[in-house]
Amino acid sequence: MTEQSPPPPRRTFHLNLNWLGVMPFALFVLLFLVMPTMKIVVGAFQRPDGSFTFANIAGLFTPSILSSYWISIKISVSSAAIGCLIGFLMAAAMVLGGLPRGLRSPLMTFSGVASNFAGVPLAFAFLATLGPLGLVTVFLRTEFGINLRAMGFNILSFWGLTITYLFFQIPLMILIVTPALDGLKREWREAASCLGATGAQYWRMVALPILFPTILGTFALLFANAFGAVATAIALTGSSLNIVPIMLFAQIRGDVLGDPHLGYAMAFGMILVTGLANVVYIVLRMRSERWLK
Amino acid sequence: MAPILEISKLRKSYGSTEILKDINVSIDKGDFLVLVGPSGCGKSTLLNCIAGLEPITGGSILIDGQDMTHVSPKDRNIAMVFQSYALYPTMSVAKNITFGMKVRGVDQATQDRKLREVAQQLQIEAYLNRRPGQLSGGQRQRVAMGRALVRDPKLFLFDEPLSNLDAKLRVEMRSEIKKLHHRLGASIVYVTHDQIEAMTLATKIVVMKGGVIQQIGTPQEIYNRPANLFVADFMGSPAMNLIPARVRGTQVEIDRPGAAPILLSDPKVAGLPENVILGLRPEDIAEAGYRAGSDVQQAACQIDLVEPAGADTYVVSTLGGKAVTARLHTETRAAPGESLDLAFDLGKVSYFEPDSGRRLN
């Protein structure tokens, strides 16, 4: 009798129903992120008749559009830098300082809410507080004789927009940097102390190098966050400040002065800038997680 | 000569909770002091107090005759090796080791010389340019020790440094620490919950429980003459047999199941209270005929369990209502359910008061 080898196991297809759980999200991303992005990218290289062109991209290099990118970058950099600094100090005070432990939970909850507070409500809140007739503006003028407007401050300006952006930038920094500060091992500080290091030496030589990727990565994320903020800018400044989102809105709002395909090119430029910032964030975050493991 | 470390009447509280109570310990230069006890007994807190990482509530700490009670850790001239190693992940091994010298402004030539010496001593020359994340647990442990060694301190503090290593590596590193202690003549305070580590490394052991020192002594004193039931039970593996017994004049009576009580003659029990706990190490109970001496007495015992362990065989019997372990030779005839004559070496016996747990003899 000849020996027969057993038949190979039959491949069976098992539908993993767990994937159904992420289907709504995947569909949402496809419909409202991937497809619009593809439309923008393709539209940036098309004439109104659908033919291919580089003219829209070339149009980005006109003085007015370049200037709008420059202002947007300056506002994003300043709001990200100040947001990083203040957010880091607040988180450090909460995690490492001697503040009451009960403060942490409300601050984190507030940060979670405030980091998503933008658009018309935020613009209105700042107009109502720091606008020409805002509560704080009037209070400072009547009670202390401090006239913000006479001192050159205007909510509808570069610094006005920067301060407004800080309302969501600082909480976002707190949310991201707090876990990194939690990850600083107590033993690192104790070892430095036993080895003869001062507090400043510990921060300069041990803690900050460990936290640096997190801080730089979060700076990139905050930059992207500010660079892509459209609704707050439009609601607050209207057309008085030529930043990219406002120039972009002018191209696509549908009136005869607009050029939708130039708008697509501007949006494409924004995607590149924010995409680059996000890549920087992801790379640095992976690096910082390696340190803090 | 003044002790290298002298702790007097030390107390440590967190709010109303007292963690360390009236701690008095001193060691001489070159001593290897091991603080041992179960989790939560306060041994790591005591080490942190010596390092200055935890402020103390009362008492004093003198290092080499100088009062360090309120001195900051960086000025105590100590070096500490942490359980988690506490190596800096962004720095190379070389930079980790020289970190302490760098912050204290030691010149570069001295830093390089000491780094070379320590790297050679600990056999880590090949890893100097690696980061801690690229090292194994044992290599990290060596780097952590190297960082402490270059400090050249008056006192080394080790906080459970081997607890993150696997069993084999732990034994290797334990030997290396012992060799290092002999070679350098260093004064060391070492925290562990592992009583084997304590016995093998220490020149002096402090056994702690609930923030209170239970006994201070050499490993032999702690092992042979435990001060109380806690120390007797905690030190040694298998633990000391603690058998409830009754004193009858100069005899000790121990219940055994299904037979008349065992009567052992021991003049030491004269004058002891009626109810005692008799403590005898497993190696002090042998198979009859394998242990001789005037203090050795035999009794037949029912064997419940036989556990061959390679070099020895452990047999378990029930005496005084407790499981009693005897360490026998490997060729023993003992079998579960059968009776075996066991020889009890009463020259090694300890007696304890059942209620207070204190030693009676």
Gyration radius of chain B, rounded: 24 Å
Total of domains of chain B: 2
Strand order of the largest sheet of chain B: 6-7-8-3-9-10
Question: What is the assigned CATH homologous superfamily of chain A?
Answer: MetI-like
**CATH level 3 topology of chain A:** MetI-like fold
**Number of DSSP helical runs of chain B:** 8
Number of self-contained structural domains of chain A:
1
Annotated CATH topology of the largest domain in chain B: Rossmann fold
- What is the count of DSSP helices of chain A, taking H or I runs of 4+ residues? 12
Poorly predicted parts of chain A: none
CATH architecture of the largest domain in chain B: 3-Layer(aba) Sandwich
CATH top level class name of the largest domain in chain B: Alpha Beta
Alpha-carbon Rg of chain A, integer: 25 Å
**Span between N and C termini of chain A?**
61 Å
Largest sheet of chain A: none
% residues in beta strands of chain A? under 5%
Summarize the biggest pleated sheet of chain B. 6 strands, mixed
SSE diagram, text form:
The complex is a heterodimer of chains A (293) and B (361).
Chain A: H1 23-44, H2 55-59, H3 63-95, H4 104-114, H5 120-130, H6 135-144, H7 158-182, H8 186-194, H9 199-227, H10 231-237, H11 244-252, H12 260-292
Helix pairs in contact in A: 1-12, 3-7, 3-9, 4-7, 5-10, 7-9, 8-9, 9-12, 11-12
Chain B: E1 5-14, E2 17-27, E3 32-36, H1 43-51, E4 58-63, E5 66-67, E6 78-81, H2 93-103, H3 108-121, H4 137-149, E7 155-159, H5 167-184, E8 188-192, H6 195-201, E9 204-209, E10 212-217, H7 219-224, H8 229-234, E11 241-248, E12 251-256, E13 259-265, E14 275-280, E15 285-287, E16 296-308, E17 313-319, E18 322-328, E19 339-345, E20 350-352
Parallel strand pairs in B: 3-8, 3-9, 6-7, 7-8
Antiparallel strand pairs in B: 1-2, 1-4, 4-5, 9-10, 11-12, 11-14, 12-13, 14-20, 15-19, 16-17, 16-19, 17-18
